[in-house]
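Teaching assistant's notes for section 4

Start the section by putting this record on the projector. Ask students to predict, before seeing the second block, whether Cytochrome c peroxidase will look compact or extended. Collect guesses on the board.
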Amino acid sequence: MLSIMRNIGAAATALITVITVSGPAGTVADPRRAEWRAGYRVPDAIPFPETNPYSQAKAELGRRLFVDPILSGARDRACLTCHQPGLGWADGRARAATLAGSNMDLRTPTILNVAWQDGPLGWDGKFRDLETVARTPIAAAGNMNLKLVDAVARLKADESYSAAFAAAFGDPAVSAERLDQALATFQRTIVAKRAPFDRWIAGDEAAIPETAKRGFDLFNGKAGCAQCHSGWSFTDNSFHDIGTAEGNDIGRGRLMPKSVALRYAFKTPTLRDVELRGPYMHDGALPDLAAVINLYDRGGIDRPSRAREIKVLHLAAEEKSDLLAFLATLTGEGESNALTAPLPVDAPKP
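Reveal the predicted structure now:
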């Protein structure tokens, strides 16, 4: 009799657990959910490299340079032209626009949360680090079209910039390296605003709907999205062939020709504010997030370089809807203030 009562008690406890974690559609929460949630907590501080530490004056200088068309040949283009806060720090285009009005080969990548994008940057990883990125679009004939030596000369000729460089670096000397460091310092302050997802991670169960919670389970479980889009910034900072790219652009494989796995591999982007950043993929080939989910559901092109994580998923329509509901919770609440808010004296927190 005692054994029977224990069995009944265990069954009742299990039933209560199922009822507690079930959503309105009766779907039971994945038992791994609590463990997964622990991996998405907001970090304590923004990382800055020892070779380019944070200072308020340097970040202010970088912000000024970011919005100033002085860094373009015709003084009609700035970093802000392609990296707009209202468009998730991208430009809303399938592919970036050239000076002539045609399309570049690739979509403008977001610089949101770039402080956490360690390792090579760019869709194909052609930039060693953030400090080496800016000089390429500045000098590119189809982009800002200003030789770096001329950019430095312009800044030297401006007394207010000499004063700003002196405040940031201790003396008024202007150099390409200091230009890079100032821009990189400001860009590391461009951090995703707290989103409903973050409030849920912090313990507010009402912050996101049950559909999004089921989508979170799918994202980390059956759909396998978190194998690449991992952690607080939703990227592993690596390169993968997800079975989409075709043609002459083979991504990271162009720079690493001996690697079969890196052929057609492109960098995993952050998913923060992803709703704001369509169209999608490195070349803007997919118009919306529903199309992105459908592509992953199909598994992409089967070829030797395709990442082992990519496979046919056979997602139901409701599961796709739950994934979309989850992705919607990653949009930050409130407008980004990186262009206007006072920058902190000490290294900022996200």
